[in-house]
Design goal:
Length: about 475
């Protein structure tokens, strides 16, 4: 890194909380690059301590990095990465063990040369400084970045990828993808995800399904299915990137209470079509004449392929239906919305990769009960696939038919576990990074090894963290 090194310019704006990104082009594979940030002509020393190495990153290899005409003509190489989930920094309110979790430092100090990239699989932050505004969400991220010095130090050097879960957006958002569902906490989704976009998901791979959450104030008329916003330009909106439209969206404050002043038309709507710059046709007519805030959600699932490995990072929160604890097999329930399910199935069936890795923020076979907060230790409380059995039972059949090794990394529960789902499929729960461990009761009291029935499906527990009840 010298004065002659290439420079890339970027602009930060108040509209994005001065969070900015730049695109680096022309980088060589499997090469270490050192970098510096220059602000107003002055070089910023990003190191937390002067004894720390100067910020740098290593680009991912490709098949040209290790090709050898005689011994490795296909350029095959090992893929190594770090993954974990749930990293609360607050011992008093959200069960964090440390304000700056040692797990990130352990990865950086002892495995930085091994890990090509690191994935935080949901619950990257827990709710603090929320005040009912987007700025409160942003303050939550800034607090975790500044107080969590180990997090910031790791990702100054190691490429990062993220998923989101309930705490990142503000709490459970059951039903945020269910068109026709009315007022409820699920309408906090998009303001929470704007902060996620600004501070984390910019680092993720983007595809044709990827957009950006949009906000505005619009007018609806009783018994009509038109949303009108004179200040919008909907012609820039690609319908393929839209998940659901939320009328009456909001975000939580410090207390997670229900609203007493919700708009009459608050709820989840579908996008039927873009009519013109100022009008959208939405699925479900309005109940009354009203001017109200709205948000247009987007897809946050993505995939990438490196060497002979294909990764599929799921969104298991932002497009789900409501749950039905009285009938978890209800075929109308879903944890992956229709667009995401189609994308996922087609992706795993068509990939030419030899190994498939699924990054799922919520569990597939392991339960998430309320045992750690005094609740039932047998009744899954709706966070993961065990409460959406129609989809949970269908997808493993499709994955198993691919006849390739499939490893599903899961999160949300503060535990680690290895579960054999089928001959070709294993679930690996990989945490927590910094949150207090959950007792076995939270996992549904599986055995520490051996056969177990997960909502009627027989699986094999290979090992599980044994935090006592």
């Amino acid at each position: 890194l010298t004065n002659e090194s290439a420079k890339v310019f970027g602009n930060a704006s108040k509209a994005s909380d001065n969070a900015a990104t730049v695109v680096l082009r022309g980088l060589k594979p499997n090469t270490r690059y050192y970098y510096a940030i220059q602000i107003a002509g002055a070089l910023a020393d990003l190191r937390p301590e002067i004894s720390e190495p100067w910020p740098s990153f290593n680009t991912l290899p490709n098949k040209t990095s290790f090709v050898d005409p005689r011994n490795n003509p296909d350029g095959v190489f090992n893929v190594t990465f770090a993954i974990g989930h749930c990293a609360s920094q607050d011992p008093d309110r959200s069960g964090g063990m440390y304000t700056s979790t040692p797990a990130y430092d352990m990865i950086r100090k002892h495995h930085a040369d091994e890990a090509m990239f690191a994935i935080v699989n949901g619950d990257v932050i827990y709710e603090e400084r929320r005040d009912g505004t987007l700025n409160g969400v942003r303050d939550n991220y800034k607090l975790y970045f500044s107080r969590g010095r180990s997090f910031s130090s790791l990702f100054r050097h190691t490429p990062a990828l993220f998923t989101f879960d309930d705490h990142d957006v503000g709490w459970d958002i059951h039903g945020c993808g269910q068109i026709g569902l009315g007022e409820g906490r699920h309408l906090i989704r998009d303001l929470g995800l704007r902060g996620y976009e600004e501070y984390l998901s910019w680092a993720n791979y983007h595809g044709p399904q990827t957009g950006r959450v949009l906000f505005g104030h619009g007018k609806v008329t009783a018994k009509r299915d038109i949303l009108f916003d004179p200040n919008a330009d909907f012609t820039r909106l690609d319908p393929a990137t839209v998940s659901t439209v939320h009328l009456g969206n909001y975000t939580r404050d410090a207390k997670l209470g229900r609203r007493n002043n919700a708009p009459k038309n608050a709820g989840v709507y579908g996008l039927t079509k873009v009519i013109d710059a100022h009008r959208l046709q939405i699925h479900q007519p309005a109940k009354v004449d009203e001017t109200l805030p709205y948000s247009i959600g987007t897809h946050h699932y993505y995939d990438w392929q490196i060497a002979n490995c294909h990764f599929f990072a799921l969104d298991t929160r932002g497009e789900r239906s409501n749950r039905n604890p009285n009938d978890r097999s209800d075929p109308d329930l879903f944890i992956l919305g229709p667009a995401q399910e189609k994308w996922f199935i087609e992706g795993v069936q068509k990939t030419d990769a030899e190994f498939i890795f699924v990054i799922s923020p919520d569990p597939w076979m392991i339960y998430h009960t309320g045992a750690h907060v005094g609740g039932d230790d047998k009744d899954d409380k709706g966070d993961g696939f065990p409460s959406f059995l129609h989809q949970r039972e269908r997808l493993p059949k499709i994955l198993d038919a691919v006849k390739k090794p499939v490893l599903i990394f899961t999160g949300d529960v503060h535990a680690s576990a290895s579960v054999k789902v089928a001959d070709n499929i294993h679930e690996m729960m990989c945490g927590p990074l910094g949150s207090t461990g959950h007792p076995l009761g939270t996992l549904g009291n599986p055995p520490t090894g051996g056969k177990w029935k997960s909502m009627g499906r027989e699986v094999e527990i290979r090992w599980v963290t044994g935090f006592p009840n």
